[in-house]
Amino acid sequence: xxxxxxxxxxxxxxxxxxxxxxxxxxxxxxxxxxxxxxxxxxxxxxxxxxxxxxxxxxxxxxxxxxxxxxxxxxxxxxxxxxxxxxxxxxxxxxxxxxxxxxxxxxxxxxxxxxxxxx
Length: 118
Description:
- This protein has 118 residues and is an all-alpha fold.
- The protein has one domain (1-113).
- Helices cover 84% and strands 0% of the residues.
- It contains six helices and no strands.
């Protein structure tokens, strides 16, 4: 069990390190970095490489933003197998809708409680 925590920490840390290097070395904006990390997760999922990473690292691979790209691709592929090309569009949102909804709701609540700038 300790090894599972260790590898989750290491893999999650490496994903975060890549994001931080994109900020500091490549001088990408937060939006560009976020988009790139989602695309990396989607590409890895498309090639079938993200699921083995999740099996190996657990939360170290499911918590970072790259997992969102994986969820988009997995949902699209599952629904495409069931419903064809229309399933690609509906599948992405069906799988990720709870996470997107939670982000919107908690962001709204945070904006009500605190004084956002901008």
